[in-house]
User: Fold these one by one.
Assistant:
Number 1:
Amino acid sequence: MTKLSIKITDNEVAKTLSELGGFVPESLEEIGPSIVDLIQLGFDASEDPYGNTWDAVIRGGKPLRDTSTLMNSFNAQVAGDSVAIGSNLTVGDGHNLASIHQDGATIRAKAGGLLRFMIGDRFVTVEQVKIPARPIIPEEENWPDTWREEVNEIILNHILK
């Protein structure tokens, strides 16, 4: 899959599972796509999972939305009793694009060269570019309430079936 993935290790979700009598593996088939939907809602709103607005981009427009390539690259894979959600989209040097935006990065020109790109209708030449962190997925053990409630509801519905 990818270097950028999440595991459901949230303490509140684990507590709910324990209180309800255990995990229903079939719920993973629904949890994965639901989390991918939550990720895509974050792209639409230009917000991290906690509702914080992503830093603006100097070219204007919505961050990470020139195309929907990154947003649409997220997928879910069920394996046994877990589901992995991530993106396998990479940039030229093999780095995971979602990870670059999740954590932020400094992009430097190779071998003392310069980076050249367009902003609007003009070319810009620089030695490096700092990409601010624009978190796409929550921290493993600090899920926002909306994400936790979504997963808990899916699990509860499967247990009640």
Number 2:
Amino acid sequence: MDGSVQKERNRLRVTVQLINVGDGVLRWAETFDEKVMNVFQVEDSISGRVAAAVKKKLTRSDRRVWAKRYTSIAEAHEAYLTGRYFFAKQTKKT
């Protein structure tokens, strides 16, 4: 998942893309425009809409993979994500 956030006065535009890392194909993209009154409400609204939209695009196999919980230890999960980031970064160089 990739995206960007732009803000002008009390307006917020969030663009979100779901890209298949295996082949680089864009699976889904959407732009959300919100009036910012409460940043937490905006975050909840957009994240809920992104989750609902992405869920519709996932195959049954994708859903099984995303439903798996490998750890409940936040530090372990963060270390895993950091490792994946650096692995992907190194892979792109070669």
